[in-house]
Amino acid sequence: MVKYNSLRRRLFAIALVLWTSVIGLSLVRGWHDAQRQAMDSAYAEARANLNKDITFRRWGTLHGGVYVPITETQKSIPWLSHVPDRDVVTRDGLALTLLNPASMLRQMMDLYAADYGVRGRITGLRQLNPDNAPDAWERAQLERFVRGEAKEVWAVSQVEGQPHLRHLRAMYMEPGCDKCHAILGYQTGDMRGATGLNLPLAPYLARIADSHLRLIEGHLLIWGVGLAGIFWGNWLAIGWGREREQIQADQERHRSELESLVAERTAELAESTRAAEMANQAKSAFLANMSHEIRTPLNAITGVAHLIRRNGLAPGQSEQLDRIDTAGRHLLEVVNAVLDLAKIESGQIVLAEKPFSLRGVLGNVLSMQNLGAASKHLRLNVEVDADVPDTWVGDAARLQQGLLNYVGNAVKFTDAGSIVLRAGLIGETPVGAMLRFEVEDSGVGIAADDLASLFSEFRQVDPAVPLHVGGTGLGLVITRKIARLMGGDAGASSIPGRGSLFWLTVCLKPGASVLRRGTVASGQDAERGLRETCAGKRILLVEDDPINQEIARSLMADFGLLVDTAGDGQQALAAVADVPYDLVLMDMQMPIMDGLQATRAMRARPGLASLPIIAMTANAFDDDRLRCTEAGMNDFIAKPVEPELFFDTIYRWLQPATADQFGRTSSPPV
Questions:
Q1: Stated pTM of the model
Q2: Using an 8 Å Cβ cutoff, are 421 and 407 in contact?
Q3: How confident is the model at residue 632 (pLDDT cuts 50, 70, 90)?
Q4: Within this chain, do residues 630 and 566 fall inside the same structural domain, yes or no?
Q5: What is the Cα–Cα distance from 227 to 620, expressed in whole angstroms?
Q6: Do 303 and 401 have their domain in common?
Q7: Which domain holds residue 289?
Q8: pLDDT tens across 477-494, in order?
Q9: 192 secondary structure, DSSP code
Q10: Strands (E), 297-358
């Protein structure tokens, strides 16, 4: 009972820490996302306003300015006195004065600032209008423009005591500008100044604060609900413990009673056993639910850590990130193992009955362990008896899981030599054939006294193993349970100091070939084709999430593909208008313009009817595929992206003539 209470308290503490950590990580990510989204909106508004001002000024330059009546409020512009015909009088006697493009834009900026609070700026190191003299920040940027260090700059700074987003873009002398600005010594093509604006950030900061408040409130609510569930589960566990303790006390107290009460007490014992089994099932259900809720954020943690590492870090930071990644992956391994065990014990595992390639499964197992084996200079080999067919019907994923447990353990406990994975037939059964798989290593070996309990739950031979190589103590018991579910068994033999041999048997049905004509046989073929024939081809990746952009770019980086990115459909339309892309990867849900709208707009443009557009989206239902087809997309890749399918798909569509899954034929542009 003491052990039971100790285990219960440990599980309770672990659940509290895990749940609080998951909520904390989610809150931090949401916090940063709210800030990023608000500032992205501010940048978009600033860019749109500046584009409007620059277009208005260019229009004025094309027409040489406009003449307006001279009034009390509109006098002749004094700094345009050098311009011929600055002031004119119409035939009917109306006195007019010239507004050059800069003056027109300045007046429009003043009106816009009064109405909307966004202050436009015209400035230059030399200026006709003294009011256009630059402030300190603008002068520093203008000097950078003159030196050719930049053409456009952004900054967040205080303006009149309030935070503003400042945007400044260089302007150059164009034909028509010399009418007014030649007097300053400028010639066509010279950098003559800049146009900019100051966007107040107060509304965006208020939006960020409101988003942060709602994030905190929502996460506190979810955290509280989770805590309630954890405390409720702990309360149930306490009740189960007390019930078991009472049962044991009753059994002890009645042990010396008369033989006539044996039958009655036997019935009570049976009822107690049933209650204990129900308690165990409830515990398994609780562990399964908690594992499901924790596994997804843990996968996100390890995935983001992987992307951060690819960007390069200082040695100290890399070591810290390795610790986070190792801890996250180890915790994910524990959670997944507990979930698998809970499913098996509760009878929730349903074995698949699908055709698969046996040699493909064995190849996957070795490819997943190659890196660890190579780091220790170990040889990994596969030996398949000649009489073993390649195609079988069964649950390839569960078979692969069991073999991965064996090979992974072999890599952990072998420091030199080799590891061999074997497969062979051992006999026929009424429903198929019995296959035997062996993993033999040249590692440390296992003492005979430890072999008997090796396949027990949470059992590890060496108490120092968790600190040395990691592990959950569940891999072997799960492998044995999988083997028995598949009609076989599992076991091991070993000689200490010379190595170990782990085996498992499964019953499988023979099957037909699983390869189909017209497809790439493996991801390696597609990768080879991409490297040899597709290097230098241009791909536009339309994706609003920076992490997804990084993942997709990383997948294509090694093949010499030239990848540009667009954050929404509107940016994608602008990109394809300027660059002859060979292929477009299009997300569905994006701000401003989604992928369906962007695809329809592209198909409506001359010359883009045959451009391959492939959906790459997390919306993976059948109706989503249909919507992509109706919008004009050629193919579909569901997220999370499987690299082999990804390489296969883009390789097929980068070939000169490709028929898509809907029967259309297109030729990607060269």
A1: 0.39
A2: yes
A3: very high
A4: yes
A5: 33
A6: no
A7: 254-349
A8: 888 988 999 999 999 999
A9: E
A10: 354-357
